[in-house]
Amino acid sequence: MQAIYTAIATARGDGRNGRTESEDGLLAVDVRIPKEMGGPGGATNPEQLFAAGYAACFHSALKMVAKGEGVDIDGSEVSASVSIGPLDSGGFGLAVALDVHAPNIPGDVARDVVEKAHQVCPYSNATRGNVDVTLSVV
Q: What's this model's pTM, rounded to 2 decimal places?
């Protein structure tokens, strides 16, 4: 792959209880283990950051595919739910649910565009075969 952009972020402190910043300073957040995982909560966490990135990236892919197919994707939204849990083989894994709201197109057309977006989205390509990703048109 020929890189056209590289994002750099650095985590400091105590991993999931620390601070993460992008090299350009545009992203600078405290991170904390969520209360549901036994942590203090009160700040964002890697799963929320991943969900935000995946939702934005998938929405861009969706808009690109829809434009190429002449489909009206105005008013669309993508919500990403990222779950973390223990793997049977040890360690932890992620699961993602992408919910797409596309009010201006029929369900079958929306599902087709969503499937095509899933083939071109960089996050989808990065997770394919490694993370369970569920697609829904809501």
A: 0.95
